[in-house]
Write a structure and sequence with these properties.
AraC-type DNA-binding protein; transcription regulation; alpha+beta; 2 domains; 8 strands; about 270 residues; Arc Repressor Mutant, subunit A; transcription; two-stranded antiparallel sheet; six-stranded antiparallel sheet
């Protein structure tokens, strides 16, 4: 699945740890992650994130919440010393837990207690008290395993479609996916609304923009038009418009900001 999400440079002001799930949980869970920081007194910093089509369950300041997919990039500000721990579910991976359309979570944060009751409060307290990343993962895996849902064959199908949208550069239009998998467009749209929370077109465009941003951040002198063509954007004005709307800067300005390692990004 996608490794992208953080815009600009990644190794300034905070540390990001990622841990894969144990094999029995890997069908629904993509990874566990932890962000830690320690800022000098009186100084703040921020990170800008471009969301992926995944639900995250996040512990932040002792509060455990379920975050649906959001449309726009957002900024998280660091102050003092702290950490945030999260579970990133695979696209479609959270529906078996939620048991209702993921589209209902779009742009929302749901207190975990609304899904798991007092057990979620107990988990939040235990996680908040656990100092190690290994301990955080172990607590989380025990919690999820005890509530592991019944298999849903549609989840695997949706994940195969999402993988095609992410990895197959020959796919430039959602209609091509519908033909490849033999699924009518209306059915495909309904399936994604229920299992992913956003449309397949949104997923395709977002993955391409994630990859474009990463390539420009890693290779500042790479011609943006070349990156656009490799990712299936044959209309350069269309690429500039989509990139600027999602990232907040033109491709050229974004690459220059990353070169300076002071990307002036905000939500």
């Amino acid at each position: 699945m996608s490794e992208y999400g953080v815009l600009g440079v990644r190794d300034v002001d905070f540390a990001l740890d990622r841990v894969p799930p144990s094999p029995p949980l890997a069908a629904l869970v993509e990874r566990y992650w932890r962000v830690t920081w320690e800022m000098p007194a009186g100084r703040t910093a921020s990170v800008v994130l471009l969301p992926t089509p995944s639900v995250n369950v996040v512990l932040d300041a002792g509060r455990l919440a379920i975050y649906g997919v959001t449309h726009d990039r957002f900024t998280y500000t660091f102050r003092g010393a702290g950490r945030v721990f999260g579970i990133k579910f695979r696209p479609a991976g959270f529906l078996p837990f939620l048991r209702r359309p993921i589209a209902g979570l779009f742009g929302r944060a749901l207190p975990a207690e609304q899904l798991w009751g007092p057990d979620a409060t107990e988990l939040a307290v235990a996680l908040q008290a656990e100092p190690s990343l290994e301990g955080l993962v172990a607590l989380t895996e025990r919690f999820l395993t005890a509530r592991w849902p019944e298999p849903d064959p549609q989840v695997e199908l949706v994940q195969r479609i999402v993988a095609a949208l992410l990895h197959d550069r020959e796919i430039t239009r959602v209609e091509e996916v519908a033909v490849r998998f033999g699924i009518p467009m209306r059915t495909l749209q309904r399936m994604f609304a229920r299992y992913v929370g956003v449309s397949p077109k949104w997923v395709l465009r977002r993955y391409r923009l994630h990859e474009a941003a990463t390539r420009l951040a890693e290779d500042h002198d790479r011609p943006w038009a070349e990156v656009a063509a490799e990712l299936g954007y044959f209309d350069q004005s269309h690429f500039i418009r989509d990139f600027t709307r999602a990232i907040g800067l033109t491709p050229v300005a974004y690459a220059q900001a990353c070169r300076r390692r002071t990307a002036p990004l905000s939500a």
